[in-house]
Design a protein that fits this description.
Length: 460
């Protein structure tokens, strides 16, 4: 895993991000974009941004860098991450740059770099971009070759049309259910596309926080503990389902008709259940932190689960390699490559409504058919070395059935697991644990914390 710092800039497989005015500035954005574009072949570059207040000035800096290297810049304006990914493919671009810090708070911003497939760039390319940024190895064009900026206004419409055109989406079936849906787009990039798509699927839509003004009224990560107002709205509106997005709309979480906010881990499991139920057989690819519920769902359809390091780029690479029909990450990220190879909240919504319509169930009824897994996610501030070897050695003393070190360290026991890893998006260690009981999950979390503290010589 790449994870490097220059001053307060965090550079990893998830892009380059920092706090605005400190880790990431207009100057930093310009130089990062120059470094990336200097590694590209000739051709246009697609750019888009979420609704953060810093996004417009950063987008201008990106456009300046793209054109200064002699390339046409196609500006999508405010656009979701999956929309930008799709438009790179559709417009035949050589690359894409998304200005978004995804689920991070509004004081953060970031650049995400895409290759010509609309996929996050590979580790070797990331390393080369980072080195070019640090060493200021930029390639400028002459005055006669300076590129132009053009606007493309149809990206949202194209994205909706692509979802509606999927062979697995029976729009008429979904429309006959006449779902009443509350959608909370956190005033982010999904504020227009999400309600519009749901209306095309025949839903009666209550749009909540869909103003594109960048006012992130809640914690941007769409986890159950952060979507209480959506849960209240679902109850008060007597809605069938609630959808919560993050600011760039590649993560999706759910609220059922009782107003119960569900773990974001259910989003991917439900989408996988629908696709595998449509005879789309093949292995499922997820990251090592994703719930064991996915294994249960895949097993019920007779297919295997392949796990990768955390990060969309890793999951997508394995999906290409294994010809997986569906995959994603347990953070609410559904990847359906028949649409495009990236996490997409829009296709997640469509597949979940399709599942409920085809099975004639409510969301809570469908969830009740699954075994109950209890997952807990937390994090720990971390400075200094994160020694996988030392942490693994300490974990061996707990006698796990398996230790997985492809991304941090995951300890798998007969009755649960815990996973500790350096975050791709924050300067923290993420700690996750899961089992079939709350008590055992809490015990696994304590064991993980104890191991981490001992690994750096601190008392538990």
């Amino acid at each position: 895993m790449i994870q490097k710092r220059k001053e307060d800039l965090l550079f990893s497989v998830a892009g380059a991000r920092g706090i605005v005015g400190r880790g990431i500035t207009v100057d930093v954005v310009t130089r990062l974009s120059l470094a990336f574009c200097s590694k590209l072949p000739a051709g246009c570059v697609v750019i888009g941004r979420d609704t953060r207040p810093s996004g417009e000035s950063f987008k201008s800096a990106v456009a300046a860098a793209v054109t200064a290297t002699g390339r046409e810049c196609v500006d999508l304006g405010i656009a979701t991450t999956p929309t930008v990914e799709m438009m790179v493919q559709k417009l035949g671009a050589v690359a894409g740059i998304i200005i978004t810090a995804s689920h991070n708070p509004v004081e953060w911003n970031a650049l995400k770099f895409l290759d010509s497939r609309g996929v996050f760039i590979s580790k070797p390319v990331s390393e080369a971009v980072y080195d070019a940024y640090v060493n200021e190895q930029f390639q400028f064009c002459d005055a006669a070759s300076t590129g132009k900026v053009t606007r493309y206004h149809q990206a949202t419409r194209d994205h909706i049309d692509a979802v509606m055109g999927l062979g697995v989406v029976d729009a008429d079936l979904i429309r006959r259910r006449s779902f009443r849906v509350v959608v909370d787009a956190i005033n982010g990039a999904g504020s227009v596309i999400a309600p519009d798509l749901l209306r095309e699927l025949g839903a009666k839509v209550v749009a909540m926080n869909c103003k594109t003004d960048g006012d992130f009224y809640r914690d941007p990560e769409p986890r159950a503990e952060n979507v209480g107002e959506l849960a209240e709205k679902v109850r008060s509106e007597n809605a069938d389902i609630g959808f919560a997005l993050d600011p760039d709309a590649d993560r999706l979480s759910l609220v059922d008709k009782t107003g119960t906010a569900l773990s974001e881990e259910y989003t991917l499991a439900l989408a996988i259940d629908e696709i595998l139920g449509l005879e789309k057989k093949g292995p499922v690819v997820v990251n090592v932190s994703t719930s064991a519920l996915v294994d249960w769902v895949a097993s019920s359809h007779g297919v295997d689960v392949i796990r990768t390091p955390v990060g969309e780029a890793h999951v997508v690479d394995a999906m290409f390699r294994e010809s997986a029909p569906i995959g994603g990450e347990g953070n609410g990220g559904v990847i359906y490559p028949a649409l495009h190879p990236g996490r997409d909240g829009m296709v997640g919504m469509a597949l979940i409504l399709q599942l409920l319509a085809s099975r004639k169930l409510s969301l809570d009824q469908q969830i009740s058919r699954y075994p109950k897994f209890h997952m807990s996610k937390t994090k720990m501030e971390w400075v200094g070395e994160f020694s996988i070897e030392r942490i693994s050695g300490l974990i061996r003393g707990l006698e796990p059935a398996k230790i997985d070190t492809q991304d941090g360290v995951k300890a798998v026991f007969d009755d649960g697991w815990f996973h500790v890893r350096i975050s791709n998006t924050e300067g923290v260690v993420r700690i996750l644990a899961e089992s079939m009981s709350v008590g055992r999950t809490e015990a696994l979390l304590r064991a993980a914390r104890d191991v981490l503290n001992e690994s750096r010589g601190r008392p538990s």
